[in-house]
Write a structure and sequence with these properties.
With about 60 residues, this protein is mostly helical. It has two helices and no strands. Helix 1 packs antiparallel against helix 2.
Amino acid sequence: METLPGVSFNLAGEDLLVLTKLLEAEQSRLLVEIRHTDHRSFREELRRRLSIVERLIDLCRTH
């Protein structure tokens, strides 16, 4: 499993499934919030956060 700087997780089974579902829920919430945000700087911050969440989802799905 790929590690993040200073952080290491060893998750499997139900733990990994729950984490993936939580991340997918956050992904959906962020997509809605991005669509409804008028402030450019806040929208960019949300997009950065979405990018991180999507990277974490990919990591979960590959392990």
